[in-house]
Design brief:
2 copies of one chain form a homodimer. Chain A starts with 5 loop residues before the first strand and ends in a 7-residue tail after the last strand. Helix content of chain A is 2%, strand content 51%. In chain A, strands 2, 7, 10, 11, 13 and 14 form a 6-stranded mixed sheet that branches. In chain A, strands 3-12-9-15-6 form a 5-stranded antiparallel sheet, with no helix packed on it. Chain A has one domain (6-163): Jelly Rolls, CATH 2.60.120.480. The first copy, chain A, is mostly beta strands and 170 residues long. The first copy, chain A, is globular. Chains A and B meet through strand 5, strand 6, strand 9 and strand 15 of A and strand 5, strand 6, strand 9 and strand 15 of B.
């Protein structure tokens, strides 16, 4: 049986467990260690993710991304990966966005709805779709790698995967 | 002449130039390189700061801080520094906060008002006051160092420095 040309992707809730094969969720609920710091005036939700950028002599940098909103239905036709480094995205305003990742270019991608307050850290080499902001232009803090070498592979998928709505379907 | 016991600190605007002795400002205005990425749907304000956490075998981590608001007038009596690594703070909601840094424990500290959308990256070893959120409990994404060794020095200042208002005084 051949792969159908177009499939609809269900949208999953972005939980630490569901996202674990791809990276970490950056939110307070994901913290396994919480310190009280600064003379009791702050909490540190510690080490939610490691920054993994040393491959090929790379170094970690901090950037800002400003992403235009995408319209739904959205057709996922490609994925990319950064073979030399992790990449973290933290939204700077309380707007939901979609995260699409894949275990391989041949697997059916998975779509997650990131709620306000949820960032992600993609492990080195994880296939993912470029940012999918929703509704409004959205700024993200990004922690990834600078350095020599090819750190971006792109692949066209064998089918088109349609995200019809951002609502989580259980 | 002895140092007066209490002095009032003026509050400065947080600009890249003014803050350069201490670290980087993380905002779109500070970008010297802007790439259009993701098939034209996003802008990358590139490499606003380097993460400097390799000293003593350290590694970069991503955490969240939740800071309670401080009341003004606020008395600055101490500073701390992280001799082994840089530390970046990016606010996750559009609330201003204060940044207090010093070139040494003997120098008069400098206070900066960070506006919505402005984060900071403190260079390794820069003396600074713990987070000074204003008005509301405020979450920050923090990029700093994990690893062995003492990475926090604290010092009591020889005088008390009072921040009376968060308004920038020119």
């Amino acid at each position: 049986m051949s792969v159908p040309d177009t499939q609809t992707l269900r949208v999953e809730a972005l939980t630490q467990d569901a996202f674990a094969p791809f990276g970490e969720v950056l939110d307070t609920a994901a913290a396994s260690t919480i310190y009280t710091i600064n003379d009791g005036t702050a909490q540190r939700f510690h080490a939610l993710a490691q920054v993994d950028t040393q491959s090929g002599g790379g170094a970690p940098i901090i950037s800002l991304f400003r992403a235009q909103p995408r319209e739904l239905p959205f057709a996922v036709r490609m994925l990319e990966r950064h073979p030399l480094g992790s990449q973290a995205f933290m939204p700077l305003a309380p707007h939901p966005y979609l995260v699409v990742v894949g275990s391989s270019p041949d697997a059916i991608p998975r779509a997650f709805l990131a709620l306000p307050g949820q960032g992600i850290n993609l492990h080195r080499g994880v296939w993912h779709h470029p940012l999918l902001a929703l509704a409004v232009t959205s700024d993200f803090l990004v922690i990834d790698r600078a350095g020599a070498g090819n750190n971006c592979d792109e692949v066209m998928l064998p089918a088109t995967y349609l995200i019809v709505s951002a609502a989580v379907t259980s």
